[in-house]
Amino acid sequence: MIGLPDGVAACLFDLDGVLTSTATLHEIAWQRTFDAFLATRTDGDRAPFTKHDYTAFVDGRPRADGVRTFLTSRGIRLPEGEPDDTPDAATVNGVGNRKNEALLALIDERGIQPYPGSVAYLNAARDAGLKIGVVTSSANGEHVLDVADLAEFVQARVDGITIADEHLRGKPAPDSFLAGARALGVAPSEAAVFEDALSGVEAGRAGGFRYVVGVNRADQAEQLRDHGADVVVDDLADLLGGSR
């Protein structure tokens, strides 16, 4: 009764935008960071950061990949720098760390709420005996799960720290989801991926996973299907009550 095909033994959930509403906070943090950064430049396209920019270049990607991809779209190149660069450094890592500061401030200010339908689905998946993992590009995955009171559901977590430590390619490459499947002891053909980002859906399809669920939080249902989703829902609770 959880809307998955036979043979699925594990669920791999993206975090921001699938289980929690923090994707909105990420978008705001990116917008504030990039708009402030672009205002300091004399090169490239300095138009304000848009929702299209977030979806096309940033959403679902590891932080440094998002900085690099967006700035490339604007004709701006920065040195990589180091992971511990200060937030005011004019480097890929510096801009990424500035965004993380903005995100953590928003979390402190607004808190984190899990989607009620996602909590209902997590309970149903656990009751059905499925293994549960979280695969997120965010380095704040552990903190977000704790604040949202979701950690109790999660048997394995792959996050931005894991991606960096294990030198995994970020989404849309399938590496992080494949690492999540390994951590749960299942093959990709035994796991379902749940994603709201186009890059994440593409990663699930590229990894050969049994089922890819696109979660339509940004009015992009057709694009989610085009990138490889087997089914698209507006909320995970839509999957409850029967198979699809």
Q: Which terms would index this structure?
A:
single chain; 244 residues; alpha/beta; Rossmann fold; DNA polymerase, domain 1; 6-stranded parallel beta sheet; 10 helices; 43% helix
Write up what this structure looks like.
- Helix content is 43%, strand content 10%.
- The chain is an alpha/beta fold and 244 residues long.
- Helix 1 packs across helix 4 (92-110).
- The protein is globular and about 55 Å long.
- The chain starts with 9 loop residues before the first strand and ends in an 11-residue tail after the last strand.
Write the layout of secondary structure elements.
Layout lengths: L9 E4 L8 H17 L12 H8 L4 H11 L18 H19 L5 H12 L3 E5 L5 H7 L8 E3 L1 H6 L9 H10 L6 E5 L2 H9 L4 E5 L5 H6 L4 E3 L11
Parallel strand pairs: 1-2, 1-4, 2-3, 4-5, 5-6
Helix pairs in contact: 1-4, 2-3, 3-4
Most strands sheet: 6 strands, parallel
Order of helices and strands, N to C? Answer: EHHHHHEHEHHEHEHE
Count helical runs. Answer: 10
Average of pLDDT: 95
Second CATH tier, the architecture of the largest domain = 3-Layer(aba) Sandwich
What's the shape? globular
Helix content: 40-55%
Tally of distinct domains: 2
Q: Structural class from helices and strands?
A: alpha/beta
The value of Rg in angstroms is 17 Å
The number of strands is: 6
What percent of residues are in strands?
Answer: 5-15%
Assign the CATH topology of the largest domain.
Answer: Rossmann fold
> Which stretches are low in confidence, meaning pLDDT under 50 for 5 or more residues running?
none
Q: CATH class of the largest domain, anyone?
A: Alpha Beta
- Spatial arrangement of strands, main beta sheet: 3-2-1-4-5-6
Q: CATH superfamily of the largest domain, please?
A: HAD superfamily/HAD-like
Please give the alpha-carbon distance between the first and last residues.
Answer: 10 Å
